Amino acid sequence: MLARVLRRSLGDAGSRSSRCGYASKMTHTDEETGEARMVSVTTKAETHRRAQAQGRIVLSKEAFAVLEANELHTAKGNALVVAQIAGIQAAKTTSQLIPLCHPLMLGLIDVRLALNKATSSVDCKTTVETKGSTGVEMEALTATSVALLTVYDMCKAIDKHMVMQDIRVIEKQGGKSGDWQWAPHQ
Amino acid sequence: MLARVLRRSLGDAGSRSSRCGYASKMTHTDEETGEARMVSVTTKAETHRRAQAQGRIVLSKEAFAVLEANELHTAKGNALVVAQIAGIQAAKTTSQLIPLCHPLMLGLIDVRLALNKATSSVDCKTTVETKGSTGVEMEALTATSVALLTVYDMCKAIDKHMVMQDIRVIEKQGGKSGDWQWAPHQ
Amino acid sequence: MLARVLRRSLGDAGSRSSRCGYASKMTHTDEETGEARMVSVTTKAETHRRAQAQGRIVLSKEAFAVLEANELHTAKGNALVVAQIAGIQAAKTTSQLIPLCHPLMLGLIDVRLALNKATSSVDCKTTVETKGSTGVEMEALTATSVALLTVYDMCKAIDKHMVMQDIRVIEKQGGKSGDWQWAPHQ
Amino acid sequence: MLARVLRRSLGDAGSRSSRCGYASKMTHTDEETGEARMVSVTTKAETHRRAQAQGRIVLSKEAFAVLEANELHTAKGNALVVAQIAGIQAAKTTSQLIPLCHPLMLGLIDVRLALNKATSSVDCKTTVETKGSTGVEMEALTATSVALLTVYDMCKAIDKHMVMQDIRVIEKQGGKSGDWQWAPHQ
Amino acid sequence: MLARVLRRSLGDAGSRSSRCGYASKMTHTDEETGEARMVSVTTKAETHRRAQAQGRIVLSKEAFAVLEANELHTAKGNALVVAQIAGIQAAKTTSQLIPLCHPLMLGLIDVRLALNKATSSVDCKTTVETKGSTGVEMEALTATSVALLTVYDMCKAIDKHMVMQDIRVIEKQGGKSGDWQWAPHQ
Amino acid sequence: MLARVLRRSLGDAGSRSSRCGYASKMTHTDEETGEARMVSVTTKAETHRRAQAQGRIVLSKEAFAVLEANELHTAKGNALVVAQIAGIQAAKTTSQLIPLCHPLMLGLIDVRLALNKATSSVDCKTTVETKGSTGVEMEALTATSVALLTVYDMCKAIDKHMVMQDIRVIEKQGGKSGDWQWAPHQ
After folding, report:
1. What is the ipTM of this complex?
2. pTM of the model
3. Does the first or last residue of chain E, that is N or C, have fewer Cβ atoms within 10 Å of its Cβ?
4. Minimal Cβ distance to B26: which of A70, A74, A168
5. What is the C-alpha to C-alpha distance for residues B87 and C174, in angstroms, rounded to an integer?
């Protein structure tokens, strides 16, 4: 076993116990070796689960005006529609992007983008739902991130200084841990 | 043509000229219709190109301590290695994730993650190089985003309040626009 | 919300009501904004579902003869076998190709190709089955289309004039809408 | 060698020569065995290449009216924009869908969809360009097919009787065979 | 039907019966034609299933020493961690790699790699679990193969003579056929 | 930098020098930290490169007879054709499967499978060619492995005891290291 080889080479039984104290909380690493492990969900019940994530990309005044003009004049909002589709597609590839993420059959992926003049940003909010045995926060976060990256791609000829900010899970329902809402770190 | 249908339905020649003023800068939308378009790079010369992006994910003190412990005791740093590999793999799938992005043969993808105690965060910096006809900033940004998402996935059992911040391109070399470095929006 | 931004910019409450009349039938667009939306299937029951699609690619006499010869002499029918495998694989990637399509676990994908001398064509018929919460007509259509595209690829050195025709769903079982069979538009 | 096994089992030297007459034209099958083979392009020169494909999906009057309404009232044309993005993305995955297709770096993918009242259809025309060693007709056809499949997906709640028609390559430039335009089979 | 065409061209009713005797056991080929077919699992019950596979890659003494040194000194074991992640990701793509394999939602993928001094090899053992309607031996084998290929990739600058050996399923639980353990062919 | 963090935590300058002696040969790990790194190929010349790999899967007498019967009677060899196509497709996804592998435009992928009665096995030999800046041995090995896995999948209802053996690169041409042929480890 790799675990054994590593432990032997470290010869470090003392520190191990304290590490385990932590590692038992970090579900994606093996308690003994700290190695990455997928969590088994085979015996977990399938329940309705839902997660919401959000984030934003801050644009220069010029880039914001261009997006707004594209929006108002043609009312087609294409840059945002392309970003929305990219986000939806990305949610479906989450388990291929995030190594220890389980594949899941998603029942809903709802990606919404809006221009926010106050912050000169495009804001994205994503809701994902499933009936499955693990949560869908990674899918919501991945969709949000890729939608924002797509906005960057479409505007980068005008503004290379854009910054993506505040990408986080804001709400979660279902599953063992029950309902949950984001609050800042203490 | 869809373009014509749309314009006719809008009957809005006046606003069109001002829109075009902007749209000619927004390379991914058609000047006339505002529709999303891929930019042709068929006749652009292949030159050496390089881009760097960075970003960070802010953790609670507890989650940070767990990552640090995993690092120090086993020196395996697996959470970070998994994130690094995820970032590298994501860079290669950029054109599948970002709709109007051209496929590119990447010559180098270098994703580095480090624990930053001062900000209680995992910081990620990615360098991508190619010999090709378009830049690689989207690849560098995508790798960075997915590496940070992977850190979220691995730590989410301890801390759901993590926030991804300041994801941006910091440097670019090669191509028509020459060398470039990030500076804040004025 | 983007919806609100768009509606405001249109200032067009009158036309909205008539649009909604239609949009409520077009399940993939938001009733209020006309924006693309994925339909939620999280609470739909999992039932046995089945769909059949078909289509054909019309070949020149020469290309048809070559395919037939390959068939008769070696009895390997490789061009058709390659197309069959391509169709099966494509069915599994449907949700990655069609943006608002839900991922589904397919229980059966049966792609059959046959030479049809009367029409100088390769005819393809695909059956897909699942136990799931949405129908599988997109999977059957996608498999059929990709199988025919593969025939094009294999014969294009002899005949570039091939045309794909009559690709459609011919039958559907299961789900809320019950059994259904194709009939021409009135 | 499989070739030998097969030939032996057929014991059919006579028919072989005539088959070869054909097979030498069918570049994707081995001359001797009729087996599927990828064509080597390693030593072919990289030249500018371009291909155009088109096709259409015929809708019921009702479905056509819904698409048109979505188009005219919101001027967002989302169903068509989603189909356009799906087509662009599909072009990039062509070599993964079509087994004997070479991967290629595409320089341009331009997918255009338009409502055609005369034929009650959505018409799609795709242009693909590359600087590479093989043609891009498969990419143009694949983008067109997937764009039309996406229209089917978005309208199928109103009309299951839609039929995809006349999907074909209409024009090709560059490469050894030079410029070419579609004409009907004689 | 292709089946009929083929049979007719073979004119070989006599041999057919004996072939069918076999083919009925080979579940992935059509009984009549020998053509490849996906097995339908739509009506099979979803049960807990588990499979284990293993294999090894034999290294030169020099390459083994390098891997061991990387292991012992930094205790990071990166070559093995990268291979482990590659194996986990590959398990999730099994149905895209193996044409007649059904997609499955995997509940656990556990890939372990260890240095084996006695055989100068890296040994890999993979366990996969699902609650589904077909077995997971292909997923376990695919993960094992790709993990070993990754070791080859990382060590090939030192040793091109590496050989992958003894890749096989060693254990299977669940499903109609019940528990099973590998034993050599008689 | 992670490198620094790790080194500091190990406090192990002495052992570092010996590790570096090795690591400089192992091109996919950072010399200082042992961390996985992609090798930069941006400035390497594009030359013609070619690699051959082979391997085999050993079957029970019964499974071998079934495959042979399928081969001889229908002369369709479908199990082998499916495996061949799977191998070709897998070669194109190599850089997605092997984390530190560069994407490459492959000019030729030739996968051949043959029944070998002497060893009761299916033997696979793959040739891959490219004009590129890195070698193609990983593509040849991946195609071979996936072709053999596909044989396993198609025969597993008859024989679960199959074993894959001797998968290795046998020949390599082009690139800095020149021509090379496999020989056993000394």
Report:
1. 0.85
2. 0.87
3. C
4. A70
5. 42
